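User: Can you write out an input/output pair for a complex, sequences first and structure second?

Assistant: Here is one pair. Inputs:
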Amino acid sequence: MASDDKASGNPTAAEPGRDFIRDIVKADLDAGRVAQVVTRFPPEPNGYLHIGHAKSICLNFGIAEEFGGRCHLRFDDTNPVKEEQEYIDAIERDVRWLGFDWGQHLYYASDYFERLYGWAEDLIRKGQAYVDDQSQDEIRANRGTLTEPGKNSPFRDRTVDENLDLFRRMRAGEFPNGARVLRAKADMSSGNINLRDPVLYRILNAPHPRTGTTWKIYPSYDFAHGQSDAIEGITHSICTLEFEDHRPLYDWFIANLDVPSTPHQYEMARLNLTYTLLSKRVLTELVRGGHVGGWDDPRMPTIAGLRRRGVPAEAIRDFIKRIGVAKANSVVDAGMFEFTVREALNKTALRRMAVLRPLKVVIENYPEGQSEELDAVNHPDDAAAGSRKIKFSRELYIEQEDFMEVPPKKFFRLSPGTEVRLRYAYFIKCTGVVKNAAGEVTELRCTYDPATKGGNAPDGRKVKATMHWVSAAHSIPAEVRIYNPLFNRPDPSGAENFAADLNPNSLELLTGARLEPAAADAKIETPVQFERQGYFCLDRDTTAEKLVFNRTIGLRDSFAKDVAKDVAKEKAGG
RNA sequence: UGGGGGAUAGUUCAACGGUAGAACUGCGGACUCUGACUCCGUCAAUCUAGGUUCGAAUCCUAGUCCCCCAGCCA
């Protein structure tokens, strides 16, 4: 029976979600190298979390869950100049929203400042660290280049006592910012530049969100991260590729300091997405420069932005599962993310009718002043979702793009003389077109077939299109925000001049939308499908006077795609 | 011309010396009271050159190309 998988010829179904990190974890567990896996998600609170962080979050918390371990949330708050409480709060909120729980294991690198300081003194006592008086420029100049070795600092051979004295005075705040640093005595000629006497501590007379003004010196990432991992008993410390050549340093501290455990660092590729920039630097500038409304602007790739836009956490988790984990740099097609968003939304979103760009329709053979109620299901694949009533009357709105006076061959919506179905209502036929002085269509005159009530013709005749609509008198107004990619190139330039690639049409405001009344029941961030249009959710900008909806994402539109293809063909064909 | 990594369909990931497979995308079709969903079919890849082996994406050798590192950022 053990060979069932092979017999069925379906080996791929065996291990969903396997990757090289999980392989390592599994091997360590199997070999008894670790008793319980302990991971951590270590954000620096200097900005909001984005979908790239979601990869790390899902990996770290996911591995802990799958292998019966635990995952810590640890703020890597070693640089008070950049960090703020607001970010700490936002990060906690976002991780929770994504569906993960760190239990009691909330930590801060700043909790370990005293211990880290002690280890720094240990290093000094062992002759493995020294206080350097060189200026920042001198240090840079003496570091050498990629091809030339660096030069030893003239302060490299100070005595232990002198180093200890100076370092303590650094801590005491006796020197101005930048006056001195503590450096590891490593190897100024190493090919790995991170080993050319890396800075361990710098003087930063700045208040820290958590430790206030008690510290005048702060540890560097390299000196803080591994030891923090060791303090917490982290077994697998997962980070991104750019830290690969920091690993020798990481291991060196763990080996040379009296730390309580020996964590190991593993590196994976960070997430990149087409039409998206995932760098905190860029995201920060987008916010500070007013290019977007804030960190949670629905166009932002931040967790907060995606949430406000209506993307469910489940979709993000599923997306991360699908893209896998590897060491090769890659750029994931944003279309893959869109697919997972639609998939998640389709399952749960209740259906409503909303006309985004209304075109008035008068049903000439429907009595004036009359209306009737029709039944509409809330979800076509889920009877349990129930149904609601919608009002039909003489004056309706349909979508402007659902009518064409001179239709091209593959257009089978409404045009003069054609018959279509109004969803859940009647078949209608267009009998006349009213235009304004500019020649634009402002109103349609139609007739309906009373025999088709509910949407089916007793004589069995078919229509090629079913359209959404609302009753003019019974519908309610709303503002709808349509979002397009923030950047107009699949590979926007990096931090230097991202502004040049900003899409000026990333936000389209539709102020005249009309919704069926049931759509107003929507709750903020709860997805709803406006049939034939896409998935939407109520935005928190909604007021008593004005409903505001965000379009999370449009439905797939093969008709629009065909049209675009034909246009392209004509251009190319000449 | 230092050090560290990486190359498999268009994209992202599998295959761990034994039939190169999936998802997304593309293309074609079925179904449909959402041109949605769903379903079916289909195109499509091992960076190059040698070598080892009965057998190589996988091991060896030599190349090529791409990414990261010269913060008192993380």
